[in-house]
């Protein structure tokens, strides 16, 4: 399984955010997207997740065990917002996403209790999501990645609001995902503590300033 | 899909879900009419079906703007958009859940409010039946408006204004079917069947339009 992106460029309104982004990631590998604020990291990830149209270029999943028409169908997206309902309990939230997302071919999600244990918050799954602290909410949003199998993880600032221990825990989750043959793409400022990852440095608009748009 | 339906129904009865807001508004509107119009029983029973329908129409529009906005605010909408499941189907299920939570209580409350308006049993039955057939159409039309206004803060009134012209035919045929049931010469079935046809028509068009709007609104 390989994720190949070629000549990706994207605009927000009239402004060119980035252009000619190209990379190739094989199964079991991770890509860390780095760059200063406003350099287009989040935009790139949203383009990959199919939530923003690319101005040009494409990103495809090749030689996957299942035929996904779009990359987004084979991907988990963990954005700035947690995609969990404050009014529902953690358990209801996670079991909803587990059933709704379902598993892709080539893997299986873990049960909800196990996912909650894996993010180190066993025993509080009965609480409404809104009662949790920001860091705990973030961890529970990560548990969502575990309950349904997706080969590609697209992570936007996954460790914001997390303490050092939780960052280690998250690095462990990503490593385990890669060991299962998955792909991870993360935009982050903090070192994720991952071994042997590719790095993509976004230069931001300054890098393409010569381009007259 | 059943999971989505169950989750939306659960959310609607939890804090801030607003399932009862619509029916409370409906009751408030209809309950003050007799005070405003005065104790003329004949007049009340004559305008009763129309008042019930107008009240139900406005009450159904009330909570529609939150249909996708709540999903967007917490990021769930991104995940719904990404799935293999056709977005149209997701939107359709959300509409059904929204109707069960806000439309069905209106239908159930309407016989009680019919008594307020001094309506006889035939008129009450006909009103409840036409509301049952007509309110889903309002929800489906409203979904399209909610999809367009999803990115706008305070889009609530905008949704109502966008949706109202399309909901007018539903109101017209709903009310005329009730009057046809009460007054002898006019046949009940033709307007009622048109009402059902409108319902089916919007059940297809509404989710399609809403899905297209949601795809374009993502940022």
Silhouette of chain A: globular
Helical fraction of chain B: over 70%
Into how many domains do the coordinates of chain A divide? 1
On the 0 to 100 scale, the average pLDDT of chain B is 91
Rg over CA atoms of chain A: 17 Å
- CATH class wording of chain A: Alpha Beta
The dominant shape of chain B is elongated
Can you tell me the CATH topology of chain A? Rossmann fold
Structural class of chain B, by secondary structure, is mainly alpha
Topology order of chain A in helix (H) and strand (E) letters: EEEHEEHHHEHEE
What's the structural domain tally of chain B?
1
Q: What structural class is derived from the secondary structure elements of chain A?
A: alpha/beta
Radius of gyration of chain B: 18 Å
Instruction: Please give the number of β-strands of chain B.
Output: 0
Keywords (chain B): Cell inner membrane, Cell membrane, Cytochrome c-type biogenesis, Membrane, Transmembrane, Transmembrane helix, Transport
Subcellular location (chain B): Cell inner membrane
Pfam families (chain B): CcmB (PF03379)
Membrane topology (chain B): Multi-pass membrane protein
């Amino acid at each position: 399984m390989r994720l190949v992106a070629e000549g990706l460029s994207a605009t927000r309104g009239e402004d060119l955010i980035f252009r000619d982004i190209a990379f190739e990631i094989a199964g079991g590998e991770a890509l860390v997207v780095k760059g200063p604020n406003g350099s287009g990291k989040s935009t790139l990830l949203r383009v990959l997740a199919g939530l923003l149209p690319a101005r040009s270029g494409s990103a495809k999943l090749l030689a996957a065990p299942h035929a996904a028409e779009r990359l987004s169908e084979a991907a988990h997206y963990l954005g700035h917002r947690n995609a969990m309902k404050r009014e529902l309990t953690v358990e209801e939230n996670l079991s909803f996403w587990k059933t709704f997302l379902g598993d892709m071919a080539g893997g299986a999600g873990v049960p909800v209790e196990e996912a909650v244990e894996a993010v180190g918050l066993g025993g509080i799954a009965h609480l409404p999501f809104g009662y949790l602290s920001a860091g705990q909410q973030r961890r529970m949003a990560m548990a969502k990645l575990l309950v349904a199998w997706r080969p590609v993880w697209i992570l936007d600032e996954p460790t914001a609001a997390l303490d050092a221990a939780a960052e280690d825990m998250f690095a462990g989750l990503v490593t385990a995902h890669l060991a299962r043959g998955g792909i991870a793409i993360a935009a982050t400022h903090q070192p994720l503590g991952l071994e042997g990852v590719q790095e993509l440095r976004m230069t931001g608009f300054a890098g393409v300033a010569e381009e007259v748009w | 899909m059943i999971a989505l339906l169950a989750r939306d129904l659960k959310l609607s009865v939890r804090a801030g879900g607003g399932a009862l807001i619509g029916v409370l508004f409906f009751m408030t509107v209809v309950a003050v009419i007799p005070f405003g119009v005065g104790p003329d029983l004949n007049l009340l029973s004559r305008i009763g079906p129309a008042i019930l329908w107008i009240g139900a129409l406005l009450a159904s529009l009330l909570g529609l703007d939150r249909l996708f906005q709540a999903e967007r605010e917490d990021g769930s909408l991104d995940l719904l958009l990404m799935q293999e499941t056709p977005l149209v189907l997701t939107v359709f299920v959300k509409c059904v859940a929204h109707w069960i939570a806000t439309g069905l209580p209106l239908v159930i409350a309407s016989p009680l409010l019919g008594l307020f308006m001094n309506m006889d049993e035939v008129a009450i039955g006909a009103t409840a039946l036409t509301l049952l057939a007509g309110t889903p159409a309002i929800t489906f039309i409203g979904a399209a408006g909610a999809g367009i206004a999803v990115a706008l803060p305070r889009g609530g009134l905008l949704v109502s204004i966008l949706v109202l012209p399309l909901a007018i035919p539903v109101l017209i045929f709903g009310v005329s079917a009730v009057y046809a049931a009460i007054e002898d010469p006019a046949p009940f079935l033709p307007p009622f069947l048109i009402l059902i046809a409108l319902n089916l028509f919007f059940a297809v068009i509404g989710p399609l339009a809403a899905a297209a709007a949601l795809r374009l609104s993502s940022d």
